[in-house]
Amino acid sequence: MIHIYLDDYRACPKGFVLARSAEECVMLLEAFDVDVLSLDYDLGWGQPSGMSVANYIVSSGKYPRRIYFHTSSEGGRQTMYQALYPGKPDHTILCNGPMPAEILMEVAESDQE
User: Fold this and answer.
1) How many domains does the chain have?
2) Which InterPro entries does the entry mention (predicted)?
3) Global pTM?
4) What is the distance between the alpha carbons of residues 7 and 82, in angstroms, rounded to a whole number?
């Protein structure tokens, strides 16, 4: 099981697999079971946004165990959350904001094992 951090610019937190594009993130979601997914919305001018990933999750039903949004786009965060929430399975935790420090520490520590 992996942890994915989708962002075209920010540094990747320890223990996460970095996806720099929506396409790369979708490929990882298709190939692996995902525990924590942290989504950015804006992924570069003219590039598919984090909404493309949210749409993929909804259409495929491949929901990670935990989903967070670290985007600085308030509108993008709300749009992704509203797309993901209605079909969210009971086993998925969908948080309408960024990962708390304890989740970042949990993932970083699991990377050392």
Assistant:
1) 1
2) cREC_REC
3) 0.96
4) 20
